[in-house]
UniProtKB/TrEMBL annotation:
Residues 97-255 form the Smf/DprA SLOG domain. Gene3D superfamilies: 3.40.50.450. SUPFAM superfamilies: MCP/YpsA-like. It comes from Longibaculum muris. Coiled coil: none annotated. The lineage of its organism: Bacteria, Bacillati, Bacillota, Erysipelotrichia, Erysipelotrichales. GO terms for biological process: DNA-mediated transformation. Transmembrane segments: none annotated. This is Putative Rossmann fold nucleotide-binding protein DprA/Smf involved in DNA uptake.
Length: 331
């Protein structure tokens, strides 16, 4: 099977990818961004030019840190292993795209900027990501009072012919995804572990052309908290809007990601106006867009609901005790 990736993509996968297990660690996102900046300011410009450079050229001509140059030269020896691994993945129906390919979801580069993943593994029709996208998130423990609301939300999303973005985790995400797919909708499912197994779980939807499965980590990877939190950021980055059914203050990944979103503005977030959930009350006080039960049952589109309820004010200060560790360090 022919690997349809350009040389810039091969370069970033070789130097930064997690597909090949090697004694030399891959470059981090920050390290690669630094290499890319130095390439662009030189006469070499593109990552594919790195294949013709030795350690001295990397250090003396590009000005790359000696340790990073050492890692890059060491990983050059794994090129054959990388090509073999990519071919094996394609034989399993798992493909990969990078920020240097035309089919990479450009919305991620716009919303996440330098935090956008360098590459994605995917199964299914990646062009689904070119449509307007929205996600629905909430508690991992399903609550009967929220199920009806969630069902009405995804029905409205389906009626408006939007794509649902999900992380496929238990609770609200899984319920929303199942309900939406039963309606006949199209979805993007971003996962952070066991992609190979989940490919089988969602095989019917993928085969029907109604789902693309995406992962920024090795398709055989196990669960990892950092990867899971990054996955939630990618879900936000893909979406025009995100609907939060319920969350609790300082509790769980929904709260954590939402607080980060207030700082970085990856997507517009609508929060259910329900005083049973302290997290919802606080998010609305901080400036999230209000969403009522009546709004979802109305004939208004989601965009019209946003226009009706969005309050444009001066930026609300996010208190230190409600920041993510990333925000706190960034300050």
């Amino acid at each position: 099977m022919r690997i349809q990736l350009n040389l810039d993509s091969i370069a970033v996968l070789l130097f930064c990818g997690d597909l090949i297990v090697d004694n030399t660690a891959p470059l981090s996102l920050e390290e690669w961004n630094d290499v890319e900046r130095k390439l662009k300011s030189s006469s070499r410009k593109t990552p594919s030019k790195l294949f013709g450079m030795n350690k001295d050229t990397l250090i003396q001509i590009l000005g790359i840190d000696e340790y990073i140059a050492y890692k890059m030269i060491a990983r050059l020896s794994t090129l054959n292993d990388l090509m073999f691994a990519l071919a094996n993945l394609e034989n399993e129906g798992i493909f990969i795209t990078t920020k240097y390919e035309d089919n990479y979801p450009k919305v991620l580069m716009t919303s996440l900027k330098k935090r956008a993943p360098l590459y994605f593994y995917y199964v299914g029709d990646l062009s689904i990501t070119s449509s307007p996208m929205i996600s629905v998130v909430g508690p991992q423990d399903l609550e009967r009072r929220l199920n009806s609301f969630t069902k009405n939300v995804v029905t409205k999303i389906y009626d408006e012919e939007k794509v649902l973005v999900s992380n496929g985790t238990k609770g609200t995400d899984a319920y929303a995804l199942k309900t939406f797919m039963n309606l006949g909708g199209k979805a993007v499912c971003v996962v952070s572990d066991h992609m190979f197994d989940k490919k089988k779980t969602y095989s019917k939807y993928i085969k029907d052309g109604r789902m693309v499965l995406m992962s920024a980590v090795d398709p055989f990877a196990y669960f990892n908290v950092t990867n899971a939190l990054d996955r939630n950021i990618y879900v936000c980055g893909l979406c025009d809007n995100q609907i939060i059914t319920a969350t609790h203050i300082n509790s769980g990944s929904v709260w954590f990601t939402t607080i980060q979103n207030f700082h970085y503005h990856w997507t517009k977030q609508l929060v259910l106006d329900d005083d049973h959930y302290g997290g919802n009350i606080r998010l609305l006080e901080m400036g999230a867009i209000k969403l009522t039960y009546e709004d979802i049952l109305s004939l208004l589109t989601i965009e019209q609901i946003i226009e009706k309820n969005e309050v444009v004010e001066e930026e609300v200060e996010v208190l230190v005790d409600q920041m993510s560790i990333y925000e706190f360090l960034d300050e």
